[in-house]
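Continuing the series of single-chain predictions for the mutant panel. This is the parent chain; the variants come on the following pages.
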Amino acid sequence: MGHASIENKTPLVLEPLFLADEEMRPLLTLVVKATYDIGRDGLTLADEQVPVNVAGEYWGVPEESGYRYEPECAFIKPATDVVLVGHACAPAPGTTEVLVALQVGPVRKAVRVVGERVWFKSMGSISMTKPRPFERIPLRYERAFGGWDRTDPDPAKHGFEPRNPVGVGFRASPRHFEEGLRLPNLEDPEQPLQRFGQAVAPASFGFVSPHWQPRASFAGTYDGAWTQKRKPLLPKDFNRRYFNAASPGLVAPGFLQGGEPVALVGASPLGRLAFALPRVIPKATVELAGSEDVHPALNLDTLILDTDEHRAFLLWRASVPLRDGPHDVRSVRLEAEGLPVVSTESGEGANMEGKT
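Parent structure:
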């Protein structure tokens, strides 16, 4: 048979991906992405809709930085990730500390952002310098507590903070003092760093990388039994919560529905932002060979607020089990309530086959 056809009757981006679940059963995963401009008066649908980011994007070198945008190619997320990308913005010259607070419907989080500080030793005691004034500080895990301790001459004794290997300030022992060691700029206001050698929870609003804790704990057990009995399938104890990549406290219970109030303080030069999420309901129809049309429920499972670019990204996702593979799919049609109707029928099915 020929390639499947795609009819997108919305201004949003539709990306069909051919993936597999835990048991390597073939799936058609539909990812729908909306781009909105953030303004003082709320959200407006952007003229340019940003494509689905299948590869993802790091802030810097992958081994030394976290994700700016995670790869948008999971076959499922069991809840909605809420992510903030941007900078803490000082309200006035001379600011040394600001509280960044985000609330989206049922989820809320606050992070204390402090100017540059270092540890120093004076008369036998270890203290931190007073924070320096700042204008903007990145809200990235590289500025939160964590990192590596490589002070021991034996590399085998090097250690790291498993919740944030790319952060700053981690030392495996209070005996590993280093003059001028940076302190984190981002802190949990309920658990500030107070003494050298203290281990606190990394605080940020960004994506948690797959190999960081606690996310990595949901990946399952890769031991000898897995190698002998399950490989290359995922382990039996794999938990789909692994696919949720938002920071602790920013995974919504269930899925956001649209219409939820959003409030953001301290992370935009526009000042306090307050608006409601758009009430958009994408609806997909999938025609499969030899069966009735399927109408999978598209769940809003990712919200990214980027106050550097003043854009908001909303992603919906649904997966349809396939009998054999991509050739099962005859057509995909996307419509949406709450958006103007457009007519864009394309032969993108020629490209669908390679999207994995």
